[in-house]
Design goal:
The complex is a heterodimer of chains A (339) and B (436). Chain A has 339 residues and is mostly helical. Chain A has 2 domains: 121 residues, no CATH class; 154 residues, no CATH class. In chain A, strands 1-2 form a two-stranded antiparallel ribbon. By secondary structure, chain B is α/β, with parallel strands linked by helices. Among the domains of chain B are: 168 residues, NADH-ubiquinone oxidoreductase 51kDa subunit (Rossmann fold, 3-Layer(aba) Sandwich); 61 residues, no CATH class. Chain B is built from 13 helices and 17 strands. In chain B, the strands form 4 sheets. Chain B has a 6-stranded mixed beta sheet with strand order 1-14-13-17-15-16. In chain B, strands 2-8-7-4 form a 4-stranded antiparallel beta sheet, with no helix packed on it. A 4-stranded parallel beta sheet of chain B has the order 11-10-9-12, with helices on both faces. Chain B is globular. Classes of the chains: A mainly alpha (339), B alpha/beta (436). Chains A and B meet through helix 1, helix 2 and helix 17 of A and helix 8, strand 15, strand 16, helix 12 and helix 13 of B.
């Protein structure tokens, strides 16, 4: 009988027998794509140097992962786009004029120490790109705080340096910042477009929001983390950031400058290092926002997004343990137990 | 007209209903031989009532119920008993079966007809249902008479007929509602009468407009039964999700539908109840959807229980080249078969054949990236991500604090998982290694 011959070829496995189309690789490569506008704007403002620094970071990240896995006779996972994304995020978080070894060292720390030594994708406690950047900032404080002017130029030794808006705000105040940009409207416009000093990929708010829109459209991120993060920053900037007392601060300047937009939409939302339950994600976002503003207003650094996300990464497992989603049919059991 | 009801979370898989949804139910040919498992239901296996050499007729009792939660089985053909022994069944387990060699005469043992069936008492209806061997035909095969005998302290006020048929591919219930709406409605009325319930509902997913229309017109002007279109979403047909959608009630954790005063019955079960009470016909036939891209001519077949799957598949043109997986039931919760030489039982809602292109290897998966998609999919509001990780690492006891036993293994989490983790397998493993 024909069917009998077939019987040997049938595959037996546990249900479900059909699967959705989403894969880790598709998610990661889409996030990479979502960062393309920000990358393009970084090249527009900072010249081919931006492409050089970012490319070097990506290349070292992918190579670090591949070589680590090959040398340990493990299967290489560079195809899933996660190492590429870590390198890209790190590159976009670097100042424009850094020497070549900065992205190389940063990517190595991000990929090997932060991710692979903890078990690879899914097991890392901290956002790899941010640990890479934190390591660089602490090890090379000077190199990591030289900001070039956003005037497109080729690799030049005599880079004209400037300060970031948050740096000016911290050192010299809001009035000076507005004066530098001409007027308030011009300042907001420049911040929105990215025409300011800062890390390569963080400056163009509009490009970042375009990429974030793609992630929202695909359902890869939800409002919970970015919006609670931004809202907390906005409220705290308004309430505590003013010179003339409570509730006189300018929330817009804090929302549009620094690494906030890049951090809130692309880094704090990293699946592995944020809570999984939606309620927990809101707490996570609020925590990120509060620590960011604490550092910006009271800390030694002008910018606090990186440390805020890293600190909240520590709390993500704890939040997940404490905040659980309401289970179907849970109410009645509670009532019965109370009796 | 009425609004579309549903539950929270769930998933939207591809349905592929069009493969068989337009195919009218056809009668399969008389099988030469049937293999009738004594355990086709949840509960104690039936006790054999025949021995090798006995002549049986179609509809004759061959195994009697062995307790309260048990169900009798009947022969679906006339012929001679040639074996009483263990054979493989569609759930993957060996089970004691009675094998009957057909005599080709199809002699029927006529049951007791009840033209005035609506005048029967609740007890009479329940006894007929029990003696007819009727079990839930949606797949779980829980004895219907047990569901219709709730303990006194549980007051039942609602009966819901489950016409959601949320499993992709399957169209058996769809065709039954479209072709036999009157019988389904009468079955529902009998179930309501046996429970002394005044309120009846029929929930049907929106993707079966002809079934919704047929059921509505079969009801006529009667108002104590309502037809509800349901959102097309998996697992809409899970009892707890259906009750939530139709009545807004949440069955408590570890509870049963009767805890919220509801009894849910499948469309096929309602039809079987009608046929048993009206014509005295035991449960010996059922509609099976034979479908999938791996089958030559998909369709909906009226199959005698005990017919071999290979026989049924052959009548649908056989398998196409590249067919790699045969599933008893639907793709989300069905059982993969290692052989087609297993019988169709009371719970076999479909035979689904998947091809190489559709096959997803379940041993190629990566670490959980904690994306949370499974949390958004789980109809029970569990944390499948955590359950799978705990099980993978051997922390089976800890899984209990994440409500391990509230999972009913619908597979939504595994469906959406981008890391392709075998979530259901991990959860089943944990369930099998700890006590509730």
């Amino acid at each position: 009988m024909a069917t009998e011959a077939k019987a040997h070829e049938l595959i037996v496995s546990v249900s479900p027998h059909v699967r959705g189309e989403e894969t880790v690789g598709r998610i990661m490569w889409t996030v990479n794509l979502a960062l393309l506008p920000a990358f393009i704007m970084s090249v527009y403002y900072f010249g081919p140097l931006a492409a050089y620094v970012t490319g070097l970071a990506v290349l070292s990240a992918v190579l670090s992962e591949h070589m680590y896995q090959v040398s340990l006779k493990k299967q290489t996972t560079i195809g899933d786009g996660s190492a590429f994304l870590t390198g890209l995020l790190l590159g976009l978080n670097l100042p424009p004029g850094v020497p070549f070894y900065i992205p190389v060292i940063g990517s190595f720390v991000a990929i090997v120490i932060t991710k692979l030594l903890f078990g690879g994708i899914g097991y890392n406690v901290f956002n790899p790109a941010l640990i890479g950047r934190a390591f660089l900032l602490i090890s090379f404080p000077k190199l990591m705080t030289i900001w070039s002017e956003p005037t497109a130029r080729f690799i030049a030794i005599d880079a004209k340096t400037t300060a970031t808006p948050l740096g000016i705000l911290k050192e010299e105040g809001l009035a000076k910042l507005i004066e530098l940009f001409g007027d308030k409207g011009h300042m907001y416009m420049s911040l929105l477009m990215g025409n300011r000093g800062g890390s390569l990929g963080e400056t163009s708010v509009i490009a970042l929001l375009l990429g974030a829109a793609l992630l929202f459209y695909r359902g890869y991120i939800t409002w919970h983390i970015p919006f609670s993060f931004l809202a907390t920053v906005g409220v705290m900037a308004w309430a505590l950031g003013g010179d003339a007392g409570l509730f006189t601060g300018d929330p817009l300047i804090h929302l549009l400058s620094g690494g906030l937009i890049l951090g809130a939409f692309f880094m704090a939302t990293d699946y592995v290092t944020c809570p999984t339950v939606k309620k927990g994600q809101v707490i996570f976002g609020i925590g990120c926002g509060a620590i960011t503003m604490l550092i910006r207003l009271k800390g030694g650094f002008p910018e606090g997004v990186m440390f805020a996300i890293l600190l909240m990464n520590c709390f993500a497992p704890l939040i997940d343990r404490g905040v659980k989603a309401k289970m179907f049919g849970a109410i009645k059991v509670d009532k019965e137990q109370k009796k | 007209m009425s609004k579309v009801l549903t539950f929270k979370r769930g998933i939207h898989p591809k349905y592929y209903k069009e493969l068989a949804s337009g195919k009218a139910i056809i009668q399969t040919r008389l099988p030469q031989r049937i293999v009738v498992p004594l355990s086709q239901h949840i509960g104690a296996p039936a006790k054999p009532e025949v021995k090798i050499g006995d002549e049986v007729k179609r509809g004759q009792l061959i195994g009697s119920a062995a307790g309260f939660v048990s169900s009798p089985v009947h022969s679906s053909i006339s012929g001679k008993v040639i074996a009483v022994s263990t054979f493989p069944t569609a759930t993957g387990r060996m089970a004691q079966c009675i094998v009957i060699e057909g005599d080709g005469k199809n002699e029927v043992l006529s049951g007791r007809e009840n033209p005035d069936y609506m005048d029967l008492s609740a007890d009479d209806i329940r006894n007929i249902i029990k003696d007819a061997g009727i079990v839930g035909m949606g797949g779980a095969a829980f004895p219907t008479s047990v569901k219709l005998s709730p303990p006194k302290e549980k007051k039942i006020d609602t009966v819901i007929i489950n016409g959601a048929e949320c499993e992709p591919y399957l169209t058996a219930d769809h065709r039954l509602m479209a072709e036999h709406p009157l019988e389904v409605v009468e079955g529902l009325r009998l179930i309501m009468k046996s429970l002394g319930v005044k309120e009846g509902h029929i929930g049907i997913e929106e993707n079966k407009p002809d079934a919704i229309k047929a059921m509505k017109s079969a009801l006529g002007g009667k108002t104590n039964i309502k037809v509800w279109p349901l959102e097309v979403k998996y697992p809409q047909g899970a009892e707890k999700m259906l009750i939530k959608a139709v009545k807004g009630r949440e069955v408590p954790s570890k509870g049963l539908p009767m805890d919220v005063g509801v009894v849910v019955q499948n469309v096929g079960t309602a039809l079987a109840v009608y046929e048993a009470v009206r014509y005295g016909k035991p449960l010996i036939d059922r509609v099976v959807t034979v479908t999938g891209n791996g089958i030559k001519e998909p369709g909906n077949l009226m199959v005698r229980i005990g017919t071999m799957m290979s026989d049924v598949v052959e009548q649908c043109g056989g398998l196409v080249g590249g067919a790699v997986k045969v599933i008893s039931g639907g793709p989300m919760m069905g059982f993969a078969q290692w052989t087609l030489d297993v019988p169709v039982t009371k719970g076999t809602s479909g035979i689904l054949v998947l091809t190489e292109d559709e096959y997803v290897p379940s041993d190629e998966y990566t670490a959980c990236i904690r994306c949370g998609r499974c949390l958004d999919a789980c109809p029970m509001g569990l944390n499948p991500s955590m359950l799978s990780i705990l099980s993978e690492k051997g922390f089976f006891e800890d899984a209990k604090s994440y409500n391990l036993f509230d999972c009913f293994e619908c597979g939504s989490c595994a469906y959406v998982c981008p890391a392709k983790r075998p979530m259901v397998q991990f959860i089943r493993l944990a369930k099998s290694l700890v006590k509730p």
